[in-house]
Amino acid sequence: MADLRSRFLDVYSVLKSEILHDPAFDFTEDSRQWVERMMDHNVPRENENSWIGLLAGKLNRGLCVIDSYKLLKEGKELTDDEFFLACALGWCIEWLQAYFRVLDDITDNIPEDAEKRRGQPSWFKQPKVGMIAVNDGSILHNHITRILKKHFREKPYYVDLLDLFNEMEFQTASGKMTELITSSTLVGEKDLSRLSTMPLHHLRIVQYYKTTYYSHYLSVACALILSGENHINVKNILVEMGFYFQVQGVAAEYENENYGKLVKSIEAHPSKAVQAALKSLLTKGHE
């Protein structure tokens, strides 16, 4: 895993360099330094002096693309190109998470004693940032399309990837809206004690769309697209699995009832490789 993480981080460095030297924009030295600092703080969550932020952040969403792709290849060694493309998609997911995180911290109006993400002040609380963070969130979002265009536009599944990421953004933003306008007491998804008092149908709406889609469905969907499999066929399983992970320890009745159903749904899929990828994800989430 350490070697996989190291190789994954190497690809981040490549993608970051490409973005900072994108010929589509005439960077000044100040703007290039700003974007580099902003990316390092928010995407791999690097602090100013070391990679310790990376160790705190598990990068599970991005690494899951590689793990799932390997399982779908049924033991065949990934070529360097295949590995790079899987990593690039993994980093697109981490970029998406960073984009949502930057804006979430602002819209959640978090109190003074809870302004940190993984031990660091939220980006909008960094010196000289403030509401510039709103524009920085937009920049992070646009980085995703730049990465996809550079590395996937010649692939036959390029439009599928664009559609997938657009769908994830729509679903997640809509879920966030639902949370903001109907659950004013919900200050953050980590406050599970608040979630336990919510009706299950409302909890399902918020968690399905705010977190589940990009945290659980997106990673495996990217791997399926890379391998030529139909990701739509397993969408319901993955989304339900993501909701199952979200409510573990909160809705015990739902949790007990649905683990077996998930296993049966996975085993009903005709592809053994897809079954293996889905069972691997379910096992990791259940640990």
Automatic annotation (TrEMBL):
Question: InterPro entries, alphabetically?
Answer: FPS1-like (IPR039702), Isoprenoid_synthase_dom_sf (IPR008949), Polyprenyl_synt (IPR000092)
Q: Which GO terms describe its biological process?
A: cholesterol biosynthetic process; isoprenoid biosynthetic process
Q: Which cofactor does it need?
A: Mg(2+)
UniProt-recorded Gene Ontology molecular function terms: metal ion binding; prenyltransferase activity
Q: Does the keyword Ribonucleoprotein apply?
A: no
Q: Which UniProt keywords apply?
A: Cholesterol biosynthesis, Cholesterol metabolism, Lipid biosynthesis, Lipid metabolism, Magnesium, Metal-binding, Steroid biosynthesis, Steroid metabolism, Sterol biosynthesis, Sterol metabolism, Transferase
Give the matching Pfam families. polyprenyl_synt (PF00348)
**Family statement:** Belongs to the FPP/GGPP synthase family.
Record's function text:
Catalyzes the sequential condensation of isopentenyl pyrophosphate with the allylic pyrophosphates, dimethylallyl pyrophosphate, and then with the resultant geranylpyrophosphate to the ultimate product farnesyl pyrophosphate.
Q: What is this protein called?
A: Farnesyl pyrophosphate synthase 1-like
